[in-house]
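User: Show me an example of a complex going from sequences to structure tokens.

Assistant: Sure. Here are the input components:
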Amino acid sequence: MLSAMQALDPAAHEAPEAAVARRIAEAAPGAARDAEAELYRLLAPRARRYGMRHLGDGAAAADLMQHVMALTIEQLRSGALREPERVASFVLGACRMTVIEQRRVERRRGELLARYADDVPIADIHVAPRLDHRRVADCLDRLPERERSVLVMTFYDDAPADAIAGEMGLSPGNVRVIRHRGLDKLRRCVDGGARAAS
Amino acid sequence: MAAGHVPIETLLAWWLHETDAAATDAVDEHLLRCDACGETLDALVGLAEGVRTAFKAGLVGAIVSGAFVARAAARGHRVREYRLAQNGGVDCTVAPEDELLVSRLQAALAGVERVDAILEFSHAPGVRHRIEDVPFDVAAGEVVYLPKIAEVKRAPANTHTVTLVAAQDGAERALGTYTFRHRPWPVG
């Protein structure tokens, strides 16, 4: 699984965020507002996803995103980020440190946010649209009973396979297989309905 | 998915905290530079939210575990529960504020390999709806059935039965028949 993924660093200098980060670093502090907004648009959704996964809460993830982007832009403006092309690595490190720090010292995170938040450009970022839950219900209806049960029990409170397996008298591997099959059918059904409606 | 991207089952495992530390770090790193995988994750999380919303709206029926019902109750969901002994019946209803309607169908399930459920409704006599291979809890000796509560709230007075059948090696045997005599709220 890991070998199939892109590594973080090898092609970092080619990524669009690298060029944008260089423009910010090379400009006078605060002079590259367009580039800062572009960097926000590129990296903020990624920081938000990290926050959603590691903090488990939309509001906390939004705070993390805002804090990390404020810190990143401040570091680029001041020249403290010496290799702007490695900005994605910096953002990941900042996300990790912020989550650790947040768990350890909640108060300090709030101070950083208060210090930089007003000075950060805010750009619209892509957030997946909400699905029509009636369409989702119709598609769930079409699944075999076990697949529907596993998906409902999984997504009700984001329960891992081990927990579902223990409750249903199945092996975790079996739950993952049922979950994968059900999810695949559900995605196709929901996507098909969305295409038909558009 | 194309080579170089994270398989969706890995994204889901990462989201559900099933991955070990090394795999979690690898996915964290990948998502910090791959918007295609990020958008796949967004769609997955959106789908999960859609399932949750549909379920909480009472639009989804499912057979679940007793532990799942306990989790829902612990989260503050208002649960109305009926426990039926083998071949039992019950006068039942659902209140407007109820959020989960739970039917616990008790049966001797030891040694059973597969259970099917056959539903019949008084408003459609002779029509049998068969649900194949339903989950069941051998230790608790029950099938925990959650009907679509939104439909039940709109339903007129009716009687319906659920028959549990053990299917094994091409043969079948009845495990029990359960009768629900539904009356709309408020029950007069």
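The lines above are the inputs; the final block is the predicted structure for all two components together. The longest helix of chain A spans residues 172-197.
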